[in-house]
C4-dicarboxylate ABC transporter substrate-binding protein (Desulfovibrio psychrotolerans), 338 residues
Amino acid sequence: MKGLRAGIAALMMIFVMSFMAVSGAQASEIALKYANFPPAPTFPCVQMERWAQEVATRTGGVVQVTTYPGSTLLDAKNMLRGVMQGQADIGCISLAYHPGVFPLLSVMELPHGFTSAESASRTAWDLYAKHQPAELDKVKVLTMFTSAPSQFMAKKPIRTLADLKGTEIRGAGLISSVLERLGATPVSMPMPEVPEAVQKGIIQGLLTSFEVLKDMKFAEMCKYETVANLPVYPFAVIMNKKRWDSLPEDVKKVFDDLSAEQAQWTGQYMDTHVETALAWSKETYNVEVYTFDDAVQAEIARLTAPLIDEWIAAAAKAGIDAQAVLNDVAALKATYEQ
Ligand code: DTR
């Protein structure tokens, strides 16, 4: 009888331990490192935190993302390579920092006349999803989004193109080419380096979306803003390919289902935040806001038109059907700008 009891006790112990082992394995976390280059308050990092939260919620806590804003894990220059080499599982890249590397997706940096970050972000993601360009085939792309249209923020008033002549203005990618065609002197650098460059007088201002007036305190140094509605800057959130392949199928589905939604969320966040930041800048630093009139806008369109032909030539050289891509951008913009 004693032997029977001991046997039953042993069996129960084995059952309890194996159950704990299985449940432990199912609930085992998937820990991911997500690197970002600009300061935490900026919109690329705000969208990163939102994505991390959504992923934790939608996977029932199985996926836990540790975020590294402010270049604390990888900076802008090392982001693309760092993710490909697995130093971070996920990273956010500004495509404009890699001239010539993205012959198809750099189309998003052209003067298409997007009026909102939401329409440009949704266009960018749909364009990527349709073409899946070879330029990003060494990573998994989790989403894409863009800044809001680019505006001037400077230490002196910029009311006409004459005010731009020979003035050092920070840009990146094709925005630097836009600055050159408008007669300014473009100075390219990653966003985190811009505040110091303004403070030191290396540049007199910058051309990007207005939310940085608040998020990076440019309103304090650049009290003269000009609405120019120049091109947006495209971003991609990329994941190390091997790490992506290692994920369970149900987790991959959560990530894929989030792609288009995250693009739209980020664009909507950006459009609202630009308005908030501009109002805050007027209230806090009494900044002056000018708007290029129609005559200046027409002159800008004339001066920047050749950039489209240059993009077509470079895309064709990379084996891309450039006109088909431009047609897609126009159709997506018409849909999302409604
Ligand atoms: N200036 C562009 C795009 C951009 C707009 N706002 C932010 C905030 C933080 C980083 C980048 C941006 C760029 O440098 O990518």
